[in-house]
Amino acid sequence: MIITTTEGVPGRDVREIVGVVSGNTIRSKNVGKDIGAGLKSIVGGELRSYTAMLTEAREEAKSRMIEAAQALGADAVVNIRFTTSQVTGGAAELLAYGTAVKLT
């Protein structure tokens, strides 16, 4: 499965647009990590536990998007994007989406 942020795949032509595909996940950290992050935000610096959480969430959302594209028989997902939003206090959604296509 080819995954790209560009509108097409170099050297290949889009034969058919299968549809928009997406994958998402909602993640939260435990209270202990939230307290540690709160203290770290006072003095500044990277909140490594949150960085790791969002990295894992991005991979999970991308994997789910790929599964959706494969279920449609796509060869690639083009023009992919990621977005995040706060769902509730302490929980964030990460969404991956793009256009599933068949290539020649």
CATH class: Alpha Beta
Question: How is the largest sheet built, in terms of strand order?
Answer: 1-3-4-2
Report the sheet with the most strands, covering strand number, pairing sense and barrel closure: 4 strands, mixed
Order of helices and strands: EEHHEE
Q: What's the alpha carbon Rg, rounded to whole Å? A: 17 Å
CATH topology: Translation Initiation Factor IF3
Mean pLDDT across the residues is 89
Write down the domain tally. 1
What would you say the CATH architecture is?
Answer: 2-Layer Sandwich
The total of beta strands comes to: 4
Q: What low-confidence regions span 5 or more consecutive residues with pLDDT below 50? A: none
Shape: elongated
In DSSP terms, counting alpha (H) and pi (I) runs of 4 or more, how many helices?
2
Give the termini distance in whole angstroms.
Answer: 14 Å
Model description:
This protein is an alpha+beta fold and 104 residues long. The protein has a single domain, classed as Hypothetical protein apc22750. Chain B (Translation Initiation Factor IF3). It is 36% helix and 41% strand. It is built from two helices and four strands; from the N terminus they run E-E-H-H-E-E. It has helices at 31-43, 48-71, and strands at 2-3, 14-28, 76-88, 91-103. A four-stranded mixed beta sheet has the order 1-3-4-2. A hairpin with a 2-residue loop joins strand 3 and strand 4. The longest helix is centred in the middle third of the chain and has 24 residues, at 48-71. The chain is elongated, with a radius of gyration of 17 Å. The model has no long low-confidence stretch (mean pLDDT 89).
